[in-house]
Amino acid sequence: MVPQKIVSVHLQESALKALEQVAASTEEKKNTDCAQIGELIPALPFEAITKQGSVSIDSTGGGDQELREEREKSRSEKRSEPHDELDSLSERETSMGKHHHLHLSSCHECFELENSTIESVRFASSENIPDLPDDCSASVDEVIDGGLARELKRVNLTGKPPNVLIYVGSDPMKIKFEKIKSVIKECIDTNSYTIYQLVEEQVLKAPWLDNSLLLVIATEEPISEENHKQFLTYLSKGGKILGLSALFTFGTIQIRSKSELKKTIQELVFYKADNSEIKLNFLTSGNVFEEDVKGNFRTVKSLSHLNNTDEDMIIVQLPYGDCGGEAILCQIYLEMDISSTTQTQEDFNLLKMNNVKRYEVLKEILTLLGLSCELSEVPSLTPVYLLSPNEDIRISFLKWLGKKKDAQGLIKSSKMTLKFVSSYKPEMEITPSLIPVVTDVGGFSSEHFSLQMYQQNLLTKKLGKIVLLAEVTSTTMNLLDGLMFDLPQEMDLIAIAVQQTQGKGRGGNVWLSPVGCALSTLHISIPLCSQLGQRIPFIQHLVSLAVVESVRSIPGYQDIDLRVKWPNDIYYSDHMKLGGVLVNSTLMGNTFHILIGCGFNVNNSSPTICINDLIMEYNKKSMTKLRPLTTDYLIARSVTVLERLIDMFQEKGPNGVLPLYYKYWIHAGKQVHLWSEEGPVAWIVGIDDCGFLQVHEEGKGVESVHPDGNSFDMLKNLIISKQQ
To answer: Tens of pLDDT along 568-582?
Structure first.
């Protein structure tokens, strides 16, 4: 037999003992088992592996020529795919849109109470990375022969995380599989599990039965008798099954069709393990569960029912066999992409507003089935790279920097210390308080940020000319703290992060920010004696307006329903928040030095909504083909628009920008309560010359109000009066 792959295997003590126990029994089956391995290897245990050219290592001693030719053909096809700049704008971000798994510590607070100024995100799509890295890619049946795999059952010889298999029936393009895989990866600890597709031809092959922690069945196609029997065999071995709108059942549970429910949004009640309830509205398959009860013996536990007269069972949990096998079967579309399932704007809005609860339910189900849905580890901090779209300005900044830093290359501030180095070495220390900044960035590249894209769309005289870019940093608000004073006149700084681990919001709120969110802190300087210098609260309004205008001023994108909410938020219509602004100002002499923290969801659609969701929905409704946007593109455009708005304000005062602000704000004609929910009713009428909200209370005329911490909440119509 010719080896097809060489992998390193670390054998735990328990695994060595298991090998010793089965060594004798496997020796006599050697020839037969070798033949079985030769038969299985072309499929390598699941289809996804063969599509990753970097996973397999051909033996130098020879090998199956046909298999190698097939792999080489696959590699050459990948290399020959066309890539133009316009395509890269959408493809890079949309592939990035399946993002890293990062969570908030309190999703309900940020979603329902708006306790941060930037839409905090608990879930994000997982990044599209190869399924199996070289050091842990082999399943048990690749390392040893098929017979031994069956003998060892779940002995984890390679240290590889448990497998999650997804069966979707016929799906030759893997479209449905990839969508479901993305949703599952957003819920589980992706460092602990590996997800594969179980294709039709592999269902009846034995090795997966013993090497899989969970089988997800997500097909509405009829399941053949042979496959049904195989799935029950898997359960009898202690396996777990999650059915997603599938026709798979067993035991006393039966499926009954209700055509009036098919693909309609229904309210349902889900019961958590702690007996608390979750009520949510979601899309149903049109099927419900019924139990054929014999006597008083019930084996089915109802986890969820529709909130209708019949209280139809919609999610059930049932055991199987004596080895701990169990299944949770669902007849709501927990797995489906909302954008692909909705027909009306009302459906889209309702499902998006229930998206957080959808993920909460799915996580609860996966936890019941034994998977870990705990928070992923916070990603490690990375060095910062000093970039500029203008080489002359970069050189000028480096000359200024040479006078500013000490002999060790350090610039210290009250928040952190920056250590400027020509190149980064892995042994360099990186902590939230000590960050290396790389100044020699020749050949710099990033999967998530294109300096060329940023350069092409940054059309400013001064703002954003020097970029400090970090893949992962604690917060961009601290990076510029020691650099913003005494800068050369021709430049201002911007710090951009792909991810933040300690992002800052109003009131000291902290959140984890995912890939796909545009995260930046911009430095601007404003003369005290200027129009804007006398009305500094207007800065936050200008920044949120700049983000909205940066999208809606793109030809064709003017009807994307992105809006501003007073005082500092970016909203989808008046439904959901997808971004916000935090402003810190310091007066030095006659100049305000202002740090503007801004974050908005561009391509991270879970658990609420992002700009690319709005674009996709608009394309469906208007039959257009607008491209999705990227974070680097929109950050550059936002800074460009902001500089122009500042210039307009300095020239004409508030009246220079308010017409555009009112065009996009969500408060026109809104009625609110003052002081408390039982307080007097007032109508919002506009913004005064200082940036405070103006309301008209019947019998008292117009008065100005302002936010107090996080007390202003349009979802609850609360306003704190300025005079309070």
So the answer is: 899 998 888 899 999
Give the whole-number percent of the chain exceeding pLDDT 90. Answer: 42
DSSP 45-92: SSHHHHT-TTT----TT---HHHHHHHHHHHHHHHT----HHHHHHHH
The amino acid sitting at 471 is E
**Angle value at C-alpha 563, between 675 and 611, nearest 5 degrees:** 125
Q: Which residues make beta-bridge pairs with 592? A: 526, 587
pLDDT tens digit sequence for 640-674: 999 999 999 999 999 999 999 999 999 887 887 77
The 10s digit of each residue's pLDDT in 127-163 is 332 332 333 333 333 332 333 233 223 333 333 337 8
Q: Which two three-digit tokens encode residue 321? A: 């066999």
Strand segments (E) across 637-700: 671-674, 681-687, 693-697
CB 7 within 8 A of CB 143: yes
For helices 30-40 and 13-27, angle between their N-to-C axes, nearest 10 degrees: 110
Between CA 142 and CA 163 the distance in angstroms is 14
Quick one: 248 exposed, middle or buried, by C-beta within 10 A (0-12, 13-18, 19+)?
A: buried
CA distance 520 to 467: 10
Q: Where are the beta strands (DSSP E) in 607-679?
A: 671-674
| CA 355/CA 529 separation, integer angstroms | 48
Q: Which of 193, 199, 196, 195 is nearest to 168 (CA)?
A: 199
Q: Which of 57-66, 200-209, 707-716 has the largest mean confidence?
A: 200-209
Q: Are strands 253-257 and 277-283 parallel, antiparallel or unpaired?
A: unpaired
CA distance 38 to 64: 10
Q: Give the integer Cα–Cα distance in Å for 485 and 504.
A: 22
Q: How many residues are listed for the chain in this entry?
A: 724
Is there a contact between 118 and 600 (Cβ–Cβ < 8 Å)? yes
Q: Which tokens sit at 425?
A: 């070495």
CA dihedral 633, 636, 638, 640 (to 10 degrees): -140
321 to 208, 233, 298, 306, 315: CA distances (angstroms)? 19, 9, 15, 29, 20
CA distances from 478 to 267, 409, 482, 483, 502 (A): 45, 18, 8, 10, 10
Q: How far apart are CA 664 and CA 570, in angstroms?
A: 10
Which stretch of DSSP H or E encloses residue 575? none
Residue by residue, DSSP assigns 230-258 as HHHHHHHTT-EEEEES-----TTEEEEE-
